[in-house]
Structures are given as C-alpha cells and as structure tokens.
Design brief:
Elements: E1 2-12, E2 18-30, E3 39-41, E4 47-55, E5 70-82, E6 88-91, E7 96-99, E8 108-123
Length: 126
C-alpha cells in the first residue's frame, strides 16, 4: 500500500448543517498499462460526466446545497468555501473536495484574488 491521497469532504449532517471533514483515498500499486511499471491507483468511483467551471472575478453566492454529488478539483487560482456553521477553508490548485451536501443549508464559495478554474466530476449517487 502506498501513501493515500488527501481529500476534503463537504456533507450535510442530520440537522442540515454543512460540514467539512478530511479523509484519505487509499492507493495500491497496479499494473495498469502493461508492460509499463505499476502505478498507484485507487478504487474506481462511478461517474456520469465532467465539466469545467470558472469563477468570475468578484463572484460570490449565498449558501446553497450541491446540485449533485460531485468531485471538485481546483486547477487555477484559489477558492474559499464555507459551511453553514461558519467554518471556512481555502482550496488551492490540486486540492480536491468531495461535495456531498445535496440537502440541508448548503455552503458558499468565492474565488480569491481573481478568477478560479476547477474541474468538476459528476459522481453517480450513492
């Protein structure tokens, strides 16, 4: 087993509050594309589609739940996200956020400094 990938999860608790939690994604060495050497790979996660998302400069929003279960990966810029409890985190290029707060009070977000670009992968509900 190799070092895991660090990820943040955004979810709604039974009271509808949105919260962050950190978790690890396990990787194992797999002969993915023989004869190439083994690569560190996670378990597959069923996904539906992906899209690019750009936050315009000075964009901000009110709290809202995620429109679907999705993985949000920052590619350029910085994004500040906050929960309904007031916890705030800054996500930088390469940071990963598993968004599962599809119910409850939701979260808010805004780009910091300028625009920000993310890749969003729509995951199958589970």
């Amino acid at each position: 087993m190799t070092d895991p990938i660090k990820c943040t999860r955004l979810y709604a608790d039974p009271h509808g509050e949105s919260l962050f939690e950190d978790f690890d994604i396990a990787l194992s060495a797999v002969a993915y594309a023989p004869p190439a050497p083994a690569l560190d790979i996670s378990e597959a996660t069923p996904a539906d589609r992906f899209f690019w998302l750009r936050f315009p400069k000075d964009w901000s929003d009110a709290a809202h739940p995620s429109p679907r279960r999705q993985l949000f990966v920052v590619l350029e810029g910085q994004v500040e996200g906050w929960t309904s409890t007031g916890e705030s985190r800054i996500f930088n290029p390469g940071d990963r956020l598993l968004m599962e707060d599809t119910t409850g009070k939701g979260h808010g977000a805004r780009p910091l400094g300028n625009t920000a670009l993310a890749l969003v992968i729509a995951l199958d509900p589970s």
